[in-house]
């Protein structure tokens, strides 16, 4: 509740939090739009492979032209302006930068940037939840061992769900389930960049006008992003995945406590203490009234008769038994809220969510029959979608993480719906993302435990 006051104090003292941003896409743009207006925060540099795109992002988000014309990091520091570069390593290594924001969305790049940031003694905000799903538990451990902070990105749904889980536990509640909403039908698992706008219910010309990347947006509709994000939540909160992954049950904001509880209590979930994503569509395609498509929620248990009575008396969004109740947030502001992570790390020494165990995985699952010799095209593409799976089950079958399923060749044919394994693909074992993932499996696998 005091972050804004603390930021103002840093501004008055001339000691702003100094930030470097890698990736000037949609999330980076949303952060930059607010970072310029946040007292006590200075974006020293922006690194993007396309420097002109980064400059256009600054223009589009309201930055005065002179603000992002620094020739180098030293000039940016001196003039409280911003340096734009295509050299992410140089930005990471810049003396005086406190926190790096990794917002590329590329798992391999995110892992490499994170390792370099930790090695440079800087904190990191991992907007790149794809990288977190591949190796977040190990990256967070390396950060802790180095005395720096690894954090999920506030404004993105995983961090907000982590906050809701923490709120519930700090109030003494047992967490039954937590998660988010999405737009889902079973057939969407076969969605491709060619069919994504029909499945989204969005006119192609509107998507084009908005500069929406069909492959990226397809990962939201085909179930992949849900699997990735709930994996991040489980690994950061201690919640555990359902054995068969997410159900995507249709549910309104007012039905969360009834539906997102265990089957033995009349709900749809496999067990207490898990994640679930609810759909804004009924299975016949009709819309759910009062849906939670872009929101988040937590369901908690009333363990005493007194609290059950409170649920009834105050209508705390209870189920029919009044034993379970829900709290939800209808929206999340994505990159517009990222400054909370920056302030929390720099001013409180606290991450806004961070993995502390390997409990969940998001694994590559065939969208259609795949032939040997095909090249997989990763998240949101034509070949695979990402399914949430308990980490132990993933390790037992040698499942290929969804984040490593791009630009790899299949050695074995796979039927639609089958899990792709490490043994099914040609892998570059020297790749930093692969070696980091392998290290995580050894560090957190059954033998290590």
Task: Tell me briefly what this model is.
The chain has 449 residues and is of the alpha/beta class. It contains 17 helices and 14 strands.
Structure description:
The chain is an alpha/beta fold. The protein has 17 helices and 14 strands. The strands form four sheets. A six-stranded parallel β-sheet has the order 3-2-1-4-5-6, sandwiched between helices. A four-stranded mixed β-sheet has the order 8-7-9-10. The chain starts with a helix and ends in a 5-residue tail after the last helix. The mean pLDDT is 96.
Total number of strands: 14
Distance between the termini: 38 Å
Task: Note the quaternary state here.
Answer: single chain
Helix count from the secondary structure assignment: 17
Mean pLDDT: 96
How is the largest sheet built, in terms of strand order?
3-2-1-4-5-6
Instruction: Tell me what portion of residues adopts beta-strand conformation.
Output: 15-25%
Q: What structural class results from the helix and strand content?
A: alpha/beta
Alpha-carbon Rg, integer: 22 Å
- Which descriptor suits the 3D outline? globular
* Low-confidence sequence ranges: none
Feature tags:
6-stranded parallel β-sheet, about 450 residues, 17 helices, alpha/beta, about 15% strand, about 35% helix, single chain
Which helices and strands occur, and which strands form pairs?
Blueprint: H1 3-12, E1 17-22, H2 26-35, E2 41-47, H3 51-60, H4 73-79, E3 83-85, H5 88-92, E4 99-102, H6 107-119, E5 123-126, H7 129-146, E6 150-152, H8 157-170, E7 174-182, H9 196-200, H10 204-209, H11 214-221, H12 224-237, H13 256-259, E8 274-279, E9 296-301, H14 305-314, E10 324-329, H15 339-348, E11 360-366, E12 375-377, E13 384-390, H16 391-397, E14 406-409, H17 432-444
């Amino acid at each position: 509740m005091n972050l804004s006051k603390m930021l103002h104090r840093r501004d008055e003292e001339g000691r702003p939090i100094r930030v470097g941003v890698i990736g000037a896409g949609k999330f980076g743009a949303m952060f930059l739009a607010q970072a310029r207006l946040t007292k006590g925060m200075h974006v020293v540099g922006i690194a993007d492979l396309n420097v002109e795109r980064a400059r256009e992002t600054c223009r589009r988000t309201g930055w005065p032209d002179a603000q992002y014309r620094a020739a180098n990091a030293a000039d940016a520091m001196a003039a409280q302006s911003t340096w734009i570069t295509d050299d992410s390593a140089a930005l990471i290594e810049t003396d005086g930068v406190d926190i790096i924001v990794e917002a590329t969305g590329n798992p391999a790049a995110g892992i490499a940037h994170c390792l370099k940031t930790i090695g440079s003694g800087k904190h990191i905000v991992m907007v790149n939840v794809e990288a977190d799903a591949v190796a977040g538990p190990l990256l967070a451990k390396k950060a802790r061992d180095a005395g720096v902070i690894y954090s999920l990105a506030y404004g993105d749904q995983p961090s907000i769900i982590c906050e809701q889980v923490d709120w519930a536990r700090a109030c003494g509640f047992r967490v039954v389930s937590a998660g988010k909403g999405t737009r889902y039908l079973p057939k969407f698992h076969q969605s491709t960049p060619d069919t994504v706008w029909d499945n989204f219910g969005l006119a192609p010309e509107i998507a084009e006008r908005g500069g929406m990347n069909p492959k990226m947006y397809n990962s939201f509709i085909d179930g992949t992003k849900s699997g990735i994000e709930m994996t991040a939540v489980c690994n950061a909160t201690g919640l555990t995945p359902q054995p068969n992954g997410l159900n995507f049950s249709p549910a309104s904001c007012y039905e969360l406590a009834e539906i997102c509880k265990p089957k033995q209590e009349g709900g749809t979930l496999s067990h207490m203490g898990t994640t679930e994503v609810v759909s804004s569509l009924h299975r016949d395609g009709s819309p759910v009234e009062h849906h939670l498509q872009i929101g988040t929620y937590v369901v908690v248990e009333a363990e005493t008769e007194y609290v059950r009575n409170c649920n009834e008396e105050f209508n705390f969004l209870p189920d029919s038994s009044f034993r379970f109740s829900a709290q939800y947030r209808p929206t999340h502001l994505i990159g517009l809220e990222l400054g909370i992570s920056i302030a929390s790390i720099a001013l409180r020494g606290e991450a806004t969510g961070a993995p502390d165990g390997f409990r969940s995985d998001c694994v590559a699952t065939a969208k259609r029959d795949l032939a040997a010799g095909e090249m997989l095209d990763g998240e949101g593409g034509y070949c695979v979608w990402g399914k949430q799976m308990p980490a132990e089950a993933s390790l037992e079958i040698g499942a290929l993480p969804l984040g490593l399923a791009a630009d790899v060749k299949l050695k074995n044919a796979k039927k639609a719906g089958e899990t792709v394994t490490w043994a099914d693909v040609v892998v570059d074992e020297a790749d930093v993302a692969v070696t980091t993932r392998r290290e995580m499996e050894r560090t957190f696998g059954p033998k290590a435990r």
